[in-house]
Amino acid sequence: MFDERSEQTRIERAIARALKEQPISRRLFLRRTGLVTASALSLPAILAACQAAPAASGGAATIRWANWPAYIDIDEETGGYPTIEAFQEATGHEVTYTEAVNDNEEFFGTINPALDAGQSTGWDLITVGGWLIERMVRLGYLQELDHAKLPNFAANGAELYKNSWYDAGNTHSVVWQAGITGIGYDRDQTGRDITSFEDLLDPEFAGRVGMFSEMRDTLELAILSLGVNPADATTADATQAQQKLLEAAERGQFRNFYGNEYYDELAAGNLALSIAWSGDITQMQLYDNPGDVQFVIPEEGGLRWTDNLAIPNGAANVDAVHQLINYWYDPAAATPLSEYIGYFTPVAGIAELIQADADEAREAGDVETADALDAVAATVNPTEEQIANTHEDAPLDEAQEAEWNALFLEVMAG
Amino acid sequence: MLNRRGLIPFLFLLPGGAWLLLFFVVPMLLMLLVSLQEGSLSTGYSLTWNFGIYPEVISEFWEQFVRAGVYALITTVLTLVLGFPMAYFIAFRGGRWKNALLLIVILPFFVSFVIRTLNWKLLLADNGIVFGALKDLGLLDPAFHLIATPAGVISGLVYNFLPFMVLPLYVALEKIDRRLIEAANDLYATRAQAFWRVTFRLALPGVVAGSLLTFIPSVGDFINAELIGSRDTTMIGNIIQFQYLTANDYPAASALGFVLVALVLLLVAVYVRAVGTEQLTG
User: Fold this and answer.
1) Mutation choice for A interface testing from B242, B244, B249, B256 by most A CBs within 10 A
2) What is the pTM of this model?
3) ipTM score for this prediction
4) What are B45-98's pLDDT values in tens digits?
5) CB-CB: which of B126, B238, B248 is closest to A269?
6) CB contact (8 A) between residue B145 and residue A252
7) Which end of chain A is more exposed for a tag (fewer CB within 10 A), N or C?
8) For residues A274 and A183, what is the distance between their CA atoms, to the nearest angstrom?
């Protein structure tokens, strides 16, 4: 059942897309960007990238990777993943890519019993949020990374994403992509610019507001609206934030508490505004919504998060997994990936490379692709202002986490 | 004393009985033991015979228990009301189309449960192909929506579980001896009387089986409430899922699961007793 649920967002989007007309179809966009990225992803570049970590002596290996939906470049003509295919071709390894993570908590819930019993989770590489990395390191669930096998990370990793609070020295994880939790809104529906967390609680939008089912996202945004930095928040602050949410929830302010599926509700116009992830709104503007969808960091502050690559206990082919991790820190792979998914990239210099592709497209007379790439180039790095306006997750100990979960369940389940 | 022939029925019970013992009774006992543990992720959980968890979870989540029961009950009644005429038509008027009609009833099962529910959600979206069209025609208030309401969740449950009601009803109706209805008519029963006193009574085993097959999965369902519902439609299945997967509170999740199974068994016992066990076996 959970495997099916993880397919949910992808299938739902596919059906929703089939049901409505779009100004630029994603497929068309891809065909265009594909032309540009094909040149960036030349075989020699990839071979060079993989030289540092020679293929495992045993030869080809299989890597089972659990990632989130809509987090990889897709060739919708073939259904394949161009960057992964290039890796497979260059190394001979096989990557079994699965969109198995829909929610950090839930994913942890599915692998915890195996890890607790010392068995394999069935995954060789997982992609999870920073706070979950901290928990899994604490529980001894992750293997240490061998940085000698990750020269690209040392060479190309952006300083902002190294050495974070949840994994000092990157001993167990490196960042996959990053983003901001803020507010997404459809200006046609709200009729005004949204600027503040309080707008989510405005009775004018009753029943058309989306919240997140991840406790940290929703509760910490509410904590920020009290003028408290989540990193310093006490349970008393969390309780005060909960009361604020509860009051709104009880008068029917929120349509529902969503995981990834808020995207479709917002794109379909069922929601006027919602808590949202930055990269999603970029994608929605480009592909899925003909209306006026905007992303804003609430003036009280937004949340800055990362998703991270890590190797769980019981993983097989650890050498090959290191090769794959190293591969993502090669600009030749990171550029086409970012051009497609548009989140913050932890690899330095990608914005410039996307810009170069945009210029190339413009010279070739493909204005539409050039405009789209220009837009992406502007979003793959946070601006100074965005960094100043956002905070990282609160490091919670186990008791605090249980208390906050109980507080949040009351808001979410009524 | 049982002779060899008397033992044979019990031998037939053995494989199924062993299966139930291994995959139902043993897990239930394990669940009971987990519910009586205390601890946390890092310290691990250990058995402390903490029976206090039961009053605790019931007092905290009784509302969701009641809601699940009410939704499941409404679902059962609605599937019966919708399903009976369907089954009746197929059994009595289906003719050579019987098999084709039954196939149509079963057809949704060719698609997975979750995807069916998602399709339902898309179909009934605020501005989807049904309500969007009605709103464009001015036949519906623009603010109307079914998704994120209790009616929406129940509509999803009815949609998903309707075949479980139709099939047993069909089987029961199909095997009714038509001559009994003729006899009733010969004895001056009106058509309504003949239906109520002969057809419906003889179909009761199908009604009992169908309502059990609809009620039991509905009461524990969390997919419909999660995908179609809102915070005000949270059912007990959603709470169990949250406790198990998100809060990692295995004892509370197990206690809730155990209470749910016990309540369902109790309800089924009362129901079957009230209607009469012979109706189950026909």
Assistant:
1) B242
2) 0.81
3) 0.79
4) 999 999 999 999 999 999 999 999 999 999 999 999 999 999 999 999 988 999
5) B126
6) no
7) N
8) 6
